């Protein structure tokens, strides 16, 4: 990624072509993942810029634990998904595989709440991508105020499994080692 433009700063405007690429990547991944189909079938990508995505998810009973609040496994799944989509927003066609995930649970949410998931690439090299994320209850308002933080964390992805970009001639942009 070192030859690319810098990653989008927080609050960068969405780029329609990047959003379309991330949506296309998600559309290719979703049919092959039972857990994503169960938990994230209704997630909506709303914004993408180089190295950053935002999505919304309306919470349903399937997302809740026995106490009627957001299940920790759903937050973990969102961490995994959002890190991959942030990697895709840099132009990669595949999102790699997880090597490490950390989730800090700060608050909770219940059925009917809308979660806003924001993820970003902190750094991506030849073989590893480092991402961060924040899950918030409520959607960022027109005044820029963000909802209450539900969970934060980080996610490291191994990128050597076909995550290469295609160059103008359609060949792989990175050498395989």
Quick overview:
The chain is an alpha+beta fold.
Describe the model.
This is HotDog domain-containing protein. Belongs to the thioesterase PaaI family. The protein is globular, with a radius of gyration of 16 Å. The protein has a single domain, classed as Thiol Ester Dehydrase, Chain A (Roll). The chain contains 3 helices and 6 strands. The two termini are 16 Å apart. It has a 6-stranded antiparallel β-sheet with strand order 1-2-4-5-6-3. It is α+β, with helices and mostly antiparallel strands and 177 residues long.
Secondary-structure map with pairings?
Blueprint: H1 16-29, H2 34-39, E1 44-49, E2 52-58, H3 72-88, E3 97-105, E4 114-124, E5 128-137, E6 148-158
Antiparallel strand pairs: 1-2, 2-4, 3-6, 4-5, 5-6
Keywords:
177 residues, alpha+beta, Thiol Ester Dehydrase, Chain A, six-stranded antiparallel beta sheet, 6 strands, 21% helix, disordered C terminus, HotDog_dom_sf, Thioestr_dom, ACOT13, fatty acyl-CoA hydrolase activity, HotDog domain-containing protein
């Amino acid at each position: 990624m070192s030859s690319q433009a810098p990653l989008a700063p927080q609050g960068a405007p969405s780029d329609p072509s990047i959003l379309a690429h991330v949506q296309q990547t998600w559309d290719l991944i979703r049919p092959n993942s039972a857990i994503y189909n169960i938990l994230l079938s209704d997630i909506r990508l709303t914004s993408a810029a180089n190295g950053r995505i935002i999505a919304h998810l309306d919470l349903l009973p399937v997302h809740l634990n026995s106490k009627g609040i957001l299940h920790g496994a759903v937050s973990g799944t969102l961490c995994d998904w959002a890190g991959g989509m942030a990697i895709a927003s840099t132009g990669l066609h595949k999102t790699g595989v997880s090597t490490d995930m950390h989730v800090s649970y700060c608050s909770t949410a219940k059925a009917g709440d809308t979660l806003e998931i924001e993820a970003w690439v902190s750094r991506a090299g030849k073989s590893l991508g480092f991402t961060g994320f924040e899950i918030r209850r409520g959607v960022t308002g027109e005044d820029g105020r963000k909802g209450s933080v539900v969970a934060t964390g980080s996610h490291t992805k191994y990128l050597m499994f076909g995550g290469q970009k295609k160059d103008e001639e359609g060949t792989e942009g990175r050498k395989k080692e």
